[in-house]
Amino acid sequence: MGSSFTASRRNGGNFELYLQKMALNEIEEMLDHLRRIKNRRDLYVDTIDEIEILEMELRFWGTFIKYHHVLLPDSLVKLVKNAKLIVRMLYRVFDGIPDEC
Fold first, then answer.
1. Nearest residue to 85 (alpha-carbon basis) of 46, 58, 49
2. By CB neighbour count within 10 A (0-12 exposed, 13-18 middle, 19+ buried), where does 54 fall?
3. Which of 60, 8, 5, 69 is nearest to 31 (CA)?
4. How many CB atoms lie within 10 A of CB 5?
5. What's the 3-state SS for the chain?
6. For residues 83 and 97, what is the distance between their CA atoms, to the nearest angstrom?
7. b/e burial code for range 34-44 (CB count within 10 A of at least 16 → b)
8. Smallest Cα–Cα separation from 53: which of 24, 96, 82, 20?
9. Where are the domains of the chain?
10. Euclidean distance between CA atoms 11 and 9, whole angstroms
11. What is the rounded distance in angstroms from the CA atom of residue 97 to the CA atom of residue 101?
């Protein structure tokens, strides 16, 4: 029984590591996409400011994903609110931007 429990924990740890890497890859892809958009010449200053805020927030989330085990439980509420704000900002920035960016 002990060995199957250890094996399931190890597999769960591998799955968690897989999810972590997948999330970090998605964040990197989003950052690359935001950089390409920011390099366009026809953007308003407000849009560039929002993109820079999103870049900073996404980098924070990457750090959070890497070091989630250090986080205090009561700060999770703030992080969830922050994540919802990021999603709203992403929709606002990507609205009307062509797919080829």
1. 58
2. buried
3. 60
4. 9
5. CHHHHHHHHHHHHHHHHHHHHHHHHHHHHHHHHHHHHHCCCCCCHHHHHHHHHHHHHHHHHHHHHHCHHHCCHHHHHHHHHHHHHHHHHHHHHHCCCCCCC
6. 22
7. beebbeeeebe
8. 82
9. 2-94
10. 5
11. 7
Task: Enter the tokens of residue 87.
Answer: 């999603």
Mean pLDDT of 50-68: 86
pLDDT band at 74; cut points 50, 70, 90: low
- Given a contact cutoff of 8 angstroms between Cβ atoms, the answer to whether 92 and 50 are in contact is yes
What pLDDT was estimated at residue 28? 93
Distances (CA, A) of 15 to 3, 64, 78: 18, 18, 26
List pLDDT tens digits, range 18-48.
888 998 999 999 899 999 888 887 888 888 8
